[in-house]
Amino acid sequence: MISIQMEAKLQEGIELGAIRIRADASFQKISKAGAVVAVVYTQDGSVRCLQCAHKRLKADFAYEAEIQRIDIAVKLTRMLNLTKIVMESDCKLLMEALEEGGQCIDWRNSAIFSDVLAYFSFIVFSWI
Fold it and tell me: Is the pTM for the entire model greater than 0.70?
């Protein structure tokens, strides 16, 4: 269930012309191999993809792979010169950490969090 505060931020994003970006990660515990993908959607929310990016990675745990997906999403948005975004993810823990100003569970990944928060003129994090 989406909070009233989050709903207001999402509505503000639509009014400001924020672009939706959805990122996802996969991770295999035994091999420590994973992959991340980020997709930029049209502003109106239609299924049409504007741009996407992906990469393979090594991670010690699933949350680290989840954080790396945010990194690829930020790189993609920078490449497209987007500064107003709605970042969507299915990792509630990560979205809450970012929404709370980057209070990162693992200090090794704090640079990614600060990079995300510093670049955008408008950003809202949405758990989907």
Answer: yes
